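Design job #97: recover the sequence.
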């Protein structure tokens, strides 16, 4: 018989975020972890009125699916990302710039002249919901701004 868990906090009336336990909770094809992604932002990113192009979306997807656990930066150069996506490094750089302008990516570190970006935790996060909320609260993370035309003006 399945274990019964309360879905609502009886004192506050708030819904309880259920955290699945263990690494083997999902049966993903190919294995691996999962990332929680805002479907609302995802709809805006893939909408033709977003101001983003296909390359931007490919680079965004690369960052979402290559982010380390806990919201850290993707430590890949534009040349490394370009090789994986069959693009030129300058194209990757332009895409990262547009994604950062829209608040989808955030500069996380700089080593010499190389900047490393992470996915805005309001957009996607690889880790438990409590950790995501903590990142958003403690780091004053901006809300994404799409379409990009509104950001530029």
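Job complete. Output follows.
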């Amino acid at each position: 018989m399945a274990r019964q868990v309360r879905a609502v906090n009886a004192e506050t009336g708030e819904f309880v975020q259920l955290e699945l336990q263990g690494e083997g909770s999902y049966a993903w094809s190919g294995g691996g972890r999962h990332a929680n992604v805002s479907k609302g932002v995802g709809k805006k990113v893939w909408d033709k009125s977003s101001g983003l192009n296909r390359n931007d979306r490919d680079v965004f997807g690369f960052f979402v699916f290559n982010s380390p656990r806990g919201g850290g930066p993707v430590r890949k150069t534009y040349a490394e990302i370009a090789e994986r996506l069959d693009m030129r490094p300058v194209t990757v750089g332009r895409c990262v710039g547009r994604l950062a302008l829209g608040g989808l990516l955030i500069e996380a570190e700089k080593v010499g002249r190389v900047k490393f970006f992470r996915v805005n935790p309001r957009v996607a996060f690889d880790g438990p919901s409590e950790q995501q909320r903590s990142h958003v609260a403690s780091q004053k993370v901006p809300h994404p701004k799409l379409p990009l035309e509104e950001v530029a003006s």
